[in-house]
Design brief:
Strand content: 5-15%
CATH class of the largest domain: Mainly Alpha
Radius of gyration: 27 Å
Helix content: 40-55%
CATH superfamily of the largest domain: Intergrase catalytic core
CATH architecture of the largest domain: Orthogonal Bundle
Shape: globular
Distance between the termini: 87 Å
Structural class: alpha+beta
Strand order of the largest sheet: 1-2-3-4
């Protein structure tokens, strides 16, 4: 008979319950991840700690291990005392292997705002910042958190500006309303962290919300002008009367809820037919950075499908989807004076093209479109929609509960016996 062999059992570190069963010891518990990488768990007197082991860098601390498994945390280092789950620690360990094989330029391009902010926070603590200063920095981090998964080098200015504008008017941790001035401080903190990391990108062009002279704040009201459906149509008509090509751009904004910069960068090839459903869709791209930030598909209403089919008919694929009266791609400078004229023409002075986006999202909410679908279509988050468009959601909830009364009141009535 041949020699009997047994397969070596792989140590299970995947759950907090399994990790809690491991006795204390000086040597780490090791879980191989392949390619010379291992995830280490140190179990001592204090809380268990994750480390990674890679061929070049050796052992490096990841952070404390989670005492309870949570499935809703993203695969990145947690903020606070929750600690890292096995999957989060594994992601960090494998990322460090990739980091060893990357060039300096590749490393800069791969940095997310979350990594940049984490490094900035650690530097501030090591630099001896006061407790009050660190509290403020952590507060800014909570407001920057929606950007943590995005790469700093390639995230477009439009996405960043949308995040910035979305903060205005929302409530902070103490229940105070965020003003343009307070949001400006958050923007400054984000830029300081990016400058500290040495990473360049569109974030450098991110503008703070403006405040008026003599202390009268503006910005929140200006950015929050919301067109009703009839006002969007009236604006498009007024814009088209002044300059037909500008009216076409406004109609596109009305039917998609896209950011102005997204439509002005679109090409004819971005209008496509879904082979499974036969419907017309619009692909929103960020040019060469699509692989980093991701594309999204805008699902169109029947009117939107007709509009875009007519818009691309007989045109070349690489041509700009929306052309100015000069036959060129639209720029902010090219339509700035037209925006002002059309807004004043319908009695909405100060309205920007962003009012179409606000109007589209509000109309979608009022018409019962699920928030997840709206967020996916508009390239934003459900949280951002809930914070920014609470007026529409609140009205819809009131109507829904009013209808619930009628539904619950149907059928035979019971007599209450006292």
């Amino acid at each position: 008979m041949g020699r009997r062999t047994t397969k070596k059992q792989v140590l299970d570190l995947t759950t907090a319950a399994k990790r809690a069963e491991l006795p204390e010891r000086k040597a780490p518990y090791s879980r191989p991840l392949g390619k010379g990488v291992a995830l280490l768990l140190y179990v001592g007197v204090s809380r268990p700690v994750w480390k990674s082991r890679t061929p070049k860098d050796g052992d490096k601390v990841i952070g404390p291990a989670a005492l309870h498994e949570t499935t809703d945390l993203p695969p990145m280092p947690s903020v606070g005392d929750t600690g890292q789950t096995f999957e989060q620690a594994r992601t960090v360990a494998l990322a460090r292997l990739n980091d060893e094989n990357m060039t300096r330029e590749d490393k800069a391009a791969a940095k997310t705002f979350g990594e940049i902010w984490s490094a900035y926070t650690k530097w501030a603590e090591a630099d001896g910042k006061t407790d009050q200063a660190m509290t403020l920095i952590h507060s800014y981090g909570l407001q920057i958190a929606p950007l943590f998964h995005l790469p700093a080098v390639t995230t477009s200015e439009e996405v960043l500006q949308d995040w910035c504008n979305g903060l205005i008017g929302t409530k902070g941790t103490r229940g105070r309303m965020r003003t343009p001035a307070s949001v400006g401080k958050v923007v400054s903190a984000l830029k300081a962290a990016c400058n500290h990391s040495g990473v360049k990108g569109p974030w450098q062009d991110l503008k703070k919300p403006k405040t008026a002279k003599h202390g009268n704040r503006i910005g929140a009201a200006k950015e929050r002008i919301v067109f009703a459906a009839e006002e969007m149509t009236a604006y498009s008509v007024a814009a088209g009367s002044a300059e037909p090509a500008f009216g076409v751009l406004c109609e596109g904004l009305k039917l998609t809820g896209a950011r102005p910069g997204e439509l002005t960068k679109a090409t004819v090839s971005d209008v496509r037919t879904n082979q499974a459903t036969g419907t017309t869709e619009l692909l929103i791209r960020f040019g060469k950075t699509a692989a980093k930030t991701g594309d999204r598909v805008v699902h169109l209403s029947p009117a939107g499908q007709r509009f875009f089919r007519e818009l691309v008919q007989g045109r070349t694929r690489n041509e700009a989807l929306f052309l100015s009266h000069k036959g060129e791609s639209w720029t902010g400078d090219a339509y700035q004076y037209l925006v002002k004229r059309a807004a004043e023409g319908i009695g909405k002075p100060g309205a920007t093209l962003y009012a179409f986006r606000h109007g589209y999202i509000s109309a979608a909410i009022y018409n019962g479109v699920p928030l997840t679908s709206i967020a996916r279509n508009c390239g934003t988050s459900v949280t951002m929609i809930e914070d920014t468009y609470s007026h529409a959601i609140g009205s819809l909830e009131q109507a829904a509960f009013a209808g619930l009364d009628a539904a619950l009141d149907a059928g035979p009535k019971l007599t209450v016996v006292k």
